[in-house]
Amino acid sequence: MKLIKSVTVSSTNLTDPKQSDSGDSALIHVGISACLAGIEVRYNGGHSQSKFCLNTLSEYFNFKTFCPEVAAGFSVPRPTMRLVGDPNNPRLTYSDNDTADLTQQLNDAIHPQLAKFDHLDGYVLMKNSPSCGYERVKVYQANGHPHTTRRQGIFTEQLQKKYPLLPIEEDGRLNDPSLRENFILRVYAHHNFRHEVLAHLSLHNLIKFHSRYKYTLMAHHQVLYKALGKMLANTGDASIEDVSNRYFKLFMQALAKPASVRNQTNTLLHILGYLKKSVSSESRKNMASVIHKYSQHKMPLITPLTLLSHYIEQHGSKYIREQRYFNPYPEALGLRNRV
Ligand code: SF4
Questions:
Q1: How far is the C-alpha of 253 from the C-alpha of 249, rounded, in Å?
Q2: With a 6 A CB cut-off, is 50 part of the ligand 1 pocket?
């Protein structure tokens, strides 16, 4: 095999990403399969450039590219590879010669790189790849047919093992407005938690963080929203490290559940309650009617949100005005126009 220059972790330098809306100047670093960034590392010498990542997300994220197969020394172009054997512990091999076991060669290249990913807040992966696939990757039996059970690629499995809370998504799934919105919301939440809580660890900062994410949590997962509130109200003798670890795990788990229209509606109505004393009943009736139309899928989330945030900005308390629910990510991404 011809060894080409290894594409490991590097900035794609596509544009200068914008700073986050929260005022945090730290850049948001997101990993990406190198072929999605337009780098010609695929088995056929080509790439699978993701227009959404390169044209839109690169305005906000500093993408770090990595190709596990090239890092492992496989050439470009190279014979196609696939997973074979036990779906729980498959081998990586060439599609036309399954006697070669390439698993160790790939793993040896992945492990040293994983340690360098601790500053990432998300990862976008190429679908169907035996290395980078996020799910539904085929594992072939000895008779040449795939098992019905599908799985992750070898790199993805190691990435998730090392960073179980890291938001990960497949490029193709980002075409779904709801999955796209959910992934980007989680990337920003992961980033905010690392910078606002983990970087300055204290119960005060953790409670402050939770306080700002209350309505986002309510819209995503009612049960975990309540559980997280209880956790912070009863920390007992637990160390702040222990509390923040448990909090982060449940917090990311809660956000991984896309917000349903029903939960969004309840959250919007709850927020509307804050305007009871300061806004006329006529105006509140109008807002309730717009929220109702959203709940019937007659308008996108952005419509009641814009109306509500206009009044909250003028009449809401500091607590409600500071809710991340109103700006979980840059508005210019337009993600709430389609959910
Ligand atoms: Fe490399 Fe992964 Fe793209 Fe395959 S899918 S070319 S392993 S980055």
A1: 6
A2: no
Report CA(147)–ligand 1 centroid distance (Å).
Answer: 22
Distance 65 CA to ligand 1 centre (A): 10
Tell me the two tokens of residue 138: 């085929």
Cβ atoms 225, 214 nearer than 8 A: yes
- Residue 67 CB–ligand 1 contact under 6 Å: yes
Q: Would you write out the chain's pLDDT as a tens digit for each of its 339 residues?
A: 333 333 454 444 444 566 544 444 478 999 999 999 999 999 999 999 999 999 999 999 999 999 999 999 999 999 999 999 999 999 999 999 989 999 999 999 999 999 999 999 999 999 999 999 999 999 999 999 999 999 999 999 999 999 999 999 999 999 999 999 999 999 999 999 999 999 999 999 999 999 999 999 999 999 999 999 999 999 999 999 999 999 999 999 999 999 999 999 999 999 999 999 999 999 999 999 999 999 999 999 999 999 999 999 999 999 999 999 999 999 999 999 999
Whether 130 lines ligand 1, by a CB cut-off of 6 Å, is: no
Please report the DSSP string for 27-94 in residue order. Answer: -EEEEEEGGGGT-S-STTS-----HIIIIIGGGTEEEEEE-HHHHTT--SS---EEEES-TTS-EEEE
Q: Which residue's alpha carbon is nearest to atom 6 within ligand 1?
A: 42
pTM of the model as a whole: 0.93
309 CA distance to ligand 1 middle (Å): 43
- Ligand 1 center to 149 CA (angstroms): 22
The answer, yes or no, to whether any atom of ligand 1 lies below 6 A from the CB of 131, is yes
